[in-house]
Amino acid sequence: MRALSQRVSQASVSVEGQVIAAIKQGFVVFIGVGRGDSDVDARYLAEKIANLRVFADESGKFNLSILDIGGEVLVVSQFTLFASTRKGRRPSFTDAAPPEEAEPLVDTFVQFLCTAGLRVDTGRFQQYMLVEIHNDGPVTIFIDSEERLKPRH
Questions:
Q1: pTM flag (> 0.85)
Q2: Burial class of residue 36 in the structure, from the number of CB atoms within 10 Å of its CB (0-12 exposed, 13-18 middle, 19+ buried)
Q3: Could you give the number of structural domains in the chain?
């Protein structure tokens, strides 16, 4: 699984002109599910995101997590995080999990964030969405669950 987390001052998702989800300070997390991903990947990403220290303390240093500041999370499913541009000009999405595999894992990821104590709102799976983001910083962090398999240096 892959997650692109953006620190925001506020964000919302609209479908067909209606706001369906909105948060204040926190993260917008674009989440992509790859073929072969599992609950282990979902838990890894949820724990990483919940504990990322990218919010400023009184000294202005990145010492606080979203849990520390009582922030919120807006999760938006995005299979395009698995785009391959190796050949030609049109991206290939063959590494992305099919919708029937991806949707339950996105739901599992959301549940892990909720269990961690976060307020989570979501976009709609397989819908055309307009995402309004007020980037804060900007601070954007990319996490791939395959990182958990690599040895630490």
A1: yes
A2: exposed
A3: 1
